[in-house]
């Protein structure tokens, strides 16, 4: 039984895929010592095809080979190994491999993923009449090395993550929902590593970095929101333990944001537009008290425009530099 939520229109699915399980169990069960027999279990999907009836295009190759190893005399050595998982079809390829260890304790994950998507071709696999259109190319790669317990915002400092997504000439939409998106050249990079460059942050500190580069984009959601932009770049990094609530010390966060043009328009015609803008920001612990944030923002824009109803504000060649921090003495007086 396959739920409809997982495979829509499942009655139209055409495939020769099947799941195979091969298990070998050896040894004895010792109730007194609490020792289990050892086992090797292989789960696989042999090279198969999958598609929808009435559609010529399909996933030509879907396969999985994974093994589970368990040693009765050493339960901590149990491990799942994904030898190979792959999808290869019209306009789509994806592959994953890696291991998951220490399943009985705090699993350690070591996985690699790579994928390629040609929207124009891949959408031809879906059932006829699907209310989605699209064209363009997306490529992605992800590498994860981490304990499962660390894959939370609070413990990212302890992980090793690398991810990259590239998009080219994207034109997609869901007409029934009035959702439309174009993206002509875009890249997102994210990862964690030890600090070796930022002199405002202690060398060796675990950092989370994010880089975004967009050549041109247009996004519309019905009549509620329109976003347009050109040459948008964001580069930011912060101490990986940013969300750690066990310490009151301010976690550093530095970055830059620039765009040759950016426009945000709401349902009531409220509009914010910026031209040729460069912004640098930082949030650092105050030198006098590490628990007080010191904020610095430097902004330069050739033009800023804000409009709401009959109100209109325009600034040309605007520059401002803001530095601020909380007055701790005043705050304590208010608390008392």
Characterize the structure shown.
This protein is mainly β and 336 residues long. The protein is built from two helices and 17 strands. The protein has helices at residues 119-122, 328-335, and strands at residues 13-15, 20-26, 38-52, 59-70, 79-89, 92-101, 108-118, 133-147, 160-174, 179-183, 186-194, 206-221, 225-239, 253-266, 271-285, 293-308, 311-325. It has a 17-stranded antiparallel beta sheet that branches. The longest helix has 8 residues, at 328-335. It is flat, with a radius of gyration of 26 Å. The protein starts with 12 loop residues before the first strand and ends with a helix. Residues 332-336 have low confidence and may be disordered.
Q: Brief description of this entry?
A:
The chain is 4% helix and 61% strand. With 336 residues, it is mainly beta.
Are there runs of 5+ residues with pLDDT below 50, and where?
332-336
**What is the rounded Rg?**
26 Å
How does the helix and strand content classify structurally? mainly beta
- Number of separate helices: 2
Strand content: over 45%
Mean pLDDT: 85
**Sheet with most strands:** 17 strands, antiparallel
How is this fold's topology laid out?
Blueprint: E1 13-15, E2 20-26, E3 38-52, E4 59-70, E5 79-89, E6 92-101, E7 108-118, H1 119-122, E8 133-147, E9 160-174, E10 179-183, E11 186-194, E12 206-221, E13 225-239, E14 253-266, E15 271-285, E16 293-308, E17 311-325, H2 328-335
Antiparallel strand pairs: 1-3, 2-3, 3-4, 4-5, 5-6, 6-7, 7-8, 8-9, 9-10, 9-11, 10-12, 11-12, 12-13, 13-14, 14-15, 15-16, 16-17
